[in-house]
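Methods — Computational structure assignment.
A single polypeptide chain was analysed. Its primary sequence is given first, followed by the predicted tertiary structure written as structure tokens.
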Amino acid sequence: MAQAKKKSAGPRVKPVPMRMCIACRRSETKRGLIRLVRTAEGRVALDPGGKRAGRGAYLCHQASCWEQALKRQGLARALRIESIEQEDRDTLEQFAQQLAATEVAPLSQQHGHD
């Protein structure tokens, strides 16, 4: 006898893709992190849309994670390249500085607490 399949009530919910920051190892939604990609030419580029072809790695929106990934060669290791070209490194460092400028101050500083 064939068994009747149970249907769940309501529409099917898609699972949210999760990724991990290569610097702090915190798990976050794919859209909550910034993707970097190794291109076919071996260069490193930002991939804000998350759709570019190539090996990808993810970093938080925190400047400290970007600094750590660049200083300790974590990004190069994650993208499986020998080293990051200086031009690409400069671009990524500029992006990290922009992130640092836009980071929200800690709550203790926002409310005048010392």
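Note: The chain has one domain: 18-101.
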